[in-house]
Specification:
The chain has nine helices and no strands. It is an all-alpha fold.
């Protein structure tokens, strides 16, 4: 991709593939959230909505709303001092948000592709006493799960940007391993 480009091409089938990838990366972390909040279905609903889109459903306001609801669940878990549950819910929100990847040639869009994997990895790290090897294992698994279409889409964007704390580091690790 040329650095002076402002947009990239994205087909609906590519968006579905990216969303499906985000779902398989985020789904395992639901258990982390649901241990703390067994009655809160918002993250699961976001994952289910993202999966429906990946399977052929339309990209709707309900899908976007489910992403926002999962992010609200993440904020509530964070406010309650449940960092692992917060990152797990954030992974679900990013999975639903992946359907809304923008065709803007900006590095920040990489989080729409890889954010669910990085937040899930962080949730697992925190659940294991902040053990970075646990997160690295999830990132390695996420790398294996990436379909060639996902890698092709990722390569159209600039590399993941700096910042973002530990989740940003995990995004950059996964980004570098897939390019």
């Amino acid at each position: 991709m040329a650095e002076d480009s402002t947009t990239i091409e994205l087909s609906r089938s590519e968006l579905r593939e990216v969303a499906g990838y985000a779902v398989v990366c985020a789904r395992p972390a639901l258990a982390v959230f649901e241990r703390e909040h067994p009655g809160d279905r918002r993250p699961r609903a976001a994952i289910d909505a993202a999966q429906a889109f990946a399977d052929g459903a339309e990209r709707t306001k309900a899908l976007r709303d489910s992403a926002w609801a999962a992010h609200r669940a993440a904020q509530e878990a964070r406010d309650a001092g449940q960092a692992a549950a917060s990152d797990a819910a954030r992974a679900a929100g990013h999975a639903a948000g992946a359907a809304f990847l923008h065709p803007l040639a900006k590095a920040t869009q990489v989080k729409h592709i890889l954010g669910s994997a990085a937040h899930a990895a962080r949730a697992f790290e925190l659940s294991a006493g902040d053990d970075p090897t646990v997160g690295a294992d999830h990132i390695a698994q996420s790398r294996i799960l990436a379909h060639p279409v996902v890698v092709d889409v990722l390569r159209r964007y600039l590399a993941a940007p700096r910042g973002g704390g530990r989740v940003g580091e995990l995004i950059r690790q996964l980004d570098a391993s897939l390019r």
